[in-house]
Amino acid sequence: MDQRASKQLLELHRGAVFADAEQATLMFLCETDRVLLMHKRRGHGAGLINAPGGKLEAGETPLACALRETREEVGLEVHDARLLGELRFLDISGERILGWAFRAERAAGEPVVTAEAEPMWFPLDAIPYSSMWPGDRFWLPWLLSGSAFRASLLCDGQQVLESRVSVMPRRWQDSC
Asked: Considering only CA atoms, which of 100, 97, 107 is closest in space to residue 150?
């Protein structure tokens, strides 16, 4: 990693402006020793394993988006969702995404296959990182352990050039 890229990532992580960045969410439903993920069948990330989620609609809060996307993609009504992660993605092309990662322990119903996704349960000790977005391996362990975090990734397409993950204070979760 060259000095310019390292400096760019550090600025991104410390609080670079993301007001005009595309915003998206992810919802991880975790039970005692497993997590619900899905094989994405179409759209952004098709062919990869990920959690339910998607882009915010106009006027929608990150939590409302995560709940809606989970309902649409896997047919579950999630309860007790907690915001645990702020995800900042910067591509060397200049594209930026600000993401919000939620974790929940309860949902009503059973996951269903939809046109968008095929849901699957994975043991927490067997997360299929090789079939997921390459950056997930840097921050997902934080979410699965219940730790609040900020993750910043500098990418070139799907290749992660550099990443930083740090603890977020408890008050951060309450303010979002």
From this structure: 100
